[in-house]
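Recap slide: Bifunctional protein FolD, sequence and predicted structure.
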Amino acid sequence: MAKRISGKDVAADVKASVAAAVRTLPGQPTLAVVLVGDDPASEVYVRHKVTDTEEVGMRSIKKTLPATATQAEVEALISDLNQDDEVDGILLQLPLPNGLDANQAIECIDPDKDVDGLTEASAGRLVLGKTGLRPCTPTGSVILAKRALGDNLSGKNVVVIGRSILVGKPTALLFLAENCTVTIAHSKTKDLPGLCRTADILVPAVGRPQMVKGDWLKPGAVVIDVGINRIDAPERGEGKTRLVGDADFADCEPVAGHITPVPGGVGPMTRACLLQNTVKAACYRRGWTLPD
Ligand code: NDP
């Protein structure tokens, strides 16, 4: 039976180490969170990010714009935050209200403050192996794999299912940077189950509920399930739903060596890695030594 890797526990450890790191810094890193509109889910996410930031001893600034804000107003706000020397990290909460171009707005963020790691410059730095801010969910996935197998992932066969710009590609590149042998699968991949069976570490990042079955796994493989899918749960009552991953947990658990649950796996790591990135951004920008 697989060991469960608790993203909640690992995220708490990351948060504690960020708090310890912040205490050793010569100044206080600052994260600016930009919320456009009044989407209730986005408001909750932003509140969590602000609370997380303050809990680890950093400063947060919340900037809000109404849903009627224009593209120029959003970009002007980002530009002000770019110029504000007190601000180390800028996070633009997505999605933006209809009519606004998120990609164009993201590109306005100074790459040195891009704590979500989403700008083209951050992607370029990742591809080139240069110092930079890496996307949070992929970073969290690598940390979870290390929790299962130890810090040295060198030579491990990794299969990432999904090639999105936000998740699949950066995840593959981060495992490559750990000297893993990485294969990226996608919707045109032939014999996906057979390919998955070659993986020491399997990272489904697809968005298809319970797609990966137990017989897709090499016995003992580590499954880092990035997918988050809401499905009907009539067993919980009429109209009820629940969250599941891209892996069929019950089917995979007896075969895998380690597996992350959904919820409570990769999800919590994304928030923790944002805090880590804010410390990194502050250290790179201000010339502070990055704590271990
Ligand atoms: P996208 O829809 O952008 O990408 C999905 C990828 O899966 C594509 O590359 C697609 O291939 C591939 N795919 C689709 N169907 C199949 C199939 N049948 N077989 C193999 N590959 C397939 O999604 P995202 O990358 O944005 O997100 C993926 C999942 O991760 C979602 O469930 C999302 O909710 C979750 N997520 C979780 C986060 C977290 O914090 N845990 C953060 C962000 C996302 P192709 O390119 O050929 O179309």
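The mean pLDDT is 97.
The chain has two domains: 27-111, 136-269.
(End of recap.)
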